[in-house]
Amino acid sequence: MPRIRGESKTAEILTLEDAVKKYMKNGIQVAYSGFTGFNRNPVAFAWETARQGIKDLHVIDRHGSCCTWILNAVNAIKIYETDWMGWGEMAGKLDVNLNRSYLQGKVILEDYSHGAMAMRFLAGAVGAPFIPYYAPLGSDLYDVKYDALGKAGLRTGKNPKIAKKKFIQMEEPFWGDGDVVLLPSAKPDLAVIHVAQAGDKGTAKWRGVGTIDKEISFACDKVVVIAEEIVPEAEMRKLPEANQIPYFTVDAIVECPWGAFPSAVPFYYDYDAPFMRGMDAASRNETDMKKWVDEWIFGPKNWEDFLVKLGSKKLLDLRADSVTGYSTRMMRGKKPAPRMKMALSVARSGY
Fold first, then answer.
1. Reading across the β-sheet that carries 130-133, which strands appear in turn?
2. How many whole angstroms separate alpha carbon 206 and alpha carbon 40?
3. If we measure between CA atoms, which residue out of 279, 281, 219, 264 comes closest to residue 62?
């Protein structure tokens, strides 16, 4: 059956705890926003998911992130469709928790390429059941021998969120361009998108890298937006061309300052690479991992208490410069980033 969107949604404003309680369920298929582990990961939502003990998640992701690292740290993911087993380029790259669970047979890992995952969400966003894509031709990722969900006996059609086939390779019927690969659309139960600003009706926007977050929000049945700040909806209408997510796709809004930490929200705060390296170091040893989980996930009373534990100096050092969008206080190598001495437009043009 084609997916037909009915009436516009009416977004509700919820606390972080209530949003997780209402929209996250055991076994749900979920997708997260952001770019790898460094940009707009909805970490607070994943953190609260782990605290509420939700399990058996089916995560379908454009690549790993701080969110999936946290969920793998507490063994909350059962099925992972992804295009990268990593989570942070400067934090060990490989998600050690995921690798450990995979080798122990606790996680089913279905691998696609970066482009293929983006195309799958594009198909889901426009309501198409599948999408043609040439890039997979010749790749072992698209060999029935490596169909993890098929091997697990899950491509039976009983689960409406799991396609009956990982791919189909066929002769292109219109132009005679040889073979093409058909990929199933991605249409998860829930999208969790971290943004800079959200209107009180649900319209949302961010600055900087967007990856495929807009497509994810259109592809999923439900959408929860986590915002650094909620502003009057009329404020979002001043520059409508700057908005990426329309209100009628959004089910819930959560105002959660610093909710993407340790990833970055451009023009709000920078990412915390040292903190992420500490996460990676802890994951190398199961005893250290348990200590980290107890201290940083289950130790704080709530997300605000988590921020208190981080300390005001760290948060001030990560605060982004309003011109460049990055922190000029944090160390990058052996010294902080240089301060701007002229407008970027002047620096780039030479005038």
1. 130-133, 179-184, 168-171
2. 9
3. 219
Cβ neighbours, 10 Å, residue 284:
12
- Please tell me whether the overall predicted TM-score, pTM, comes out greater than 0.85 for this model: yes
Can you state the angle between helices 66-73 and 96-103, rounded to 10 degrees?
Answer: 50
Domains in the chain, ordered, with CATH?
A: 12-255 (3.40.1080.10), 273-282+301-349 (no CATH)
Token pair of 245, please? Answer: 């997510």
Beta-sheet pairing, 29-32 with 130-133: unpaired
Tell me the per-residue pLDDT of 189-235, one tens digit each, with 9 for 90 and over: 999 999 999 999 999 999 998 899 999 999 999 999 999 999 999 99
**CB contact at 8 A, 70 and 99:** no
Residue 138's alpha-carbon distances to 38, 62, 179, 180, 302, in angstroms, are 31, 21, 11, 11, 48
- Give which of 105, 118, 106, 62 is closest to 85, Cα–Cα: 62
Helix axes 43-51, 303-310, angle to 10 degrees: 110
Quote the CA–CA distance of 85 and 71 in Å, as a whole number. 13
Give the tokens for residue 30: 């979920």
Give φ, ψ of 25 to 5 degrees.
-135, 155
